[in-house]
Amino acid sequence: MSYVSPGKGYSRDSRYLTTRITADGRDGYRVEPGRYRLVVSRACPWASRAVIVRRLLGLEEALPMAVAGPVHDERSWTFDLDPGRRDPVLGIERLRDAYLARDPGYDRGITVPAVVDVPSGKVVTNDVPRITLDMALEWTPYHRPGAPALYPPALRPEIDAVNEVVYRDVNNAVYEAGFAGTQEAYADAYARLFARLDRLSARLERSRYLVGDGITEADVRLFTTLVRFDAVYHGHFKCNRQKLAEMPVLWAYARDLFQTPGFGDTVDFEHIKRHYYLVHDDINPTGIVPAGPDTAGWLAPHGREALGGRPFGDGTAPGPVAPGEAVPAGHTPLA
After folding, report:
1. Where is the composition biased (Low complexity) (predicted)?
2. Would you tell me how many other CB atoms lie within 10 Å of the CB of residue 225?
């Protein structure tokens, strides 16, 4: 399976299924607790956004989750973590089956996160940017008491602006560097990535969170790249000017979030490493998965409380991880 096209830069296929699940059902799919299944992989940064937001908002019962294994082939993510290697609710072995149920001629990416309509077995949406926003805005009757406002109206223009540059220069730039097929494409992505990280560091030197005084959608989107940085992007994707652990402000910011309920307790470092180092076999043909880095540093004091801020705004922290959803012991320093 090839991820690098020699002589070309990397271009992400963002042709998503943009059907929305809304409170009024205007796209044909109404918010209903238990009707849908959120399919994720803990390895994938885009899916990890949805895992974090779902937990912060307390949607575990309303929107049940299926966790695919960290390794897939050119056909699909698979449910090899489940008994019989089959999702117990959807009854399928591969996520591809739910995409083909939606469209037998589907020829785009079989991506996570994906929200599947359980009665029909069809994928409703894999629209990464929209899924978490709709969790925050359309599923509000099923939020837990004390759920934070992750996309508050007054801050939306600023959140949107931050998200745009973080996506272009951080979330996607690491892939543009890692999958570059020319030196020039790599150099451009590398330069944009570290220039943006320097700007974010300057911003976060005086503010505990990216926008406002509490956690928002913007923090979730940046965190999922930062938490993978030293484990995979620094070496595997050649984003090696510095490790995250060598960028003091961003490292403290990332540790602050990691130690906040809803963030670090969703992170599976073993799944992350297995995915990148095994699936991208044109970059890592030996299939050797690194033993490091040591993740214990994620639990070191961060000192960010001195900047003030209220992680959950007027709300409260989520409770314990739902039964059956804990990251396996040994896959996280929190275990």
Report:
1. 315-335
2. 24
Domain endpoint, select from 113, 142, 171: 142
Q: Which of 142, 173, 205 is the last residue of a domain?
A: 142
Clarify whether 10 is annotated catalytic. Answer: no
- Which residue matches tokens 């543009």? 176
Pairing of strands 65-67, 114-117: unpaired
Residue 48's domain comprises: 36-142
Residue 67 lies in a domain: yes
What tens digit of pLDDT does each residue of 272-316 get? 999 999 999 999 999 999 999 999 999 999 999 999 999 999 999
How many domains is the chain partitioned into structurally? 2
20 found inside a domain: no
DSSP characters over 171-221 = ITHHHHHHT-SSHHHHHHHHHHHHHHHHHHHHHHTS-SSSSTTS--HHHHH
Is the residue at 10 inside a domain? no
Q: Is 304 within 8 Å of 263 (Cβ atoms)?
A: no
Catalytic residue among 10, 36, 44, 209: 44
Q: What is the pLDDT of residues 218-272, one digit of tens each?
A: 999 999 999 999 999 999 999 999 999 999 999 999 999 999 999 999 999 999 9
Total count of residues recorded for the chain: 335
The answer to whether 167 is a known catalytic residue is: no
Residue of 99, 175, 190, 209 marked catalytic: 175
Q: Is residue 55 part of a domain?
A: yes
Strand-strand pairing, 36-40 and 65-67: parallel
Tell me 12's DSSP state. Answer: -
**Whole-model pTM above 0.70?**
yes
Sequence-distant (≥ 6) Cβ neighbours of residue 131 within 8 angstroms: 49, 50, 113, 115, 125
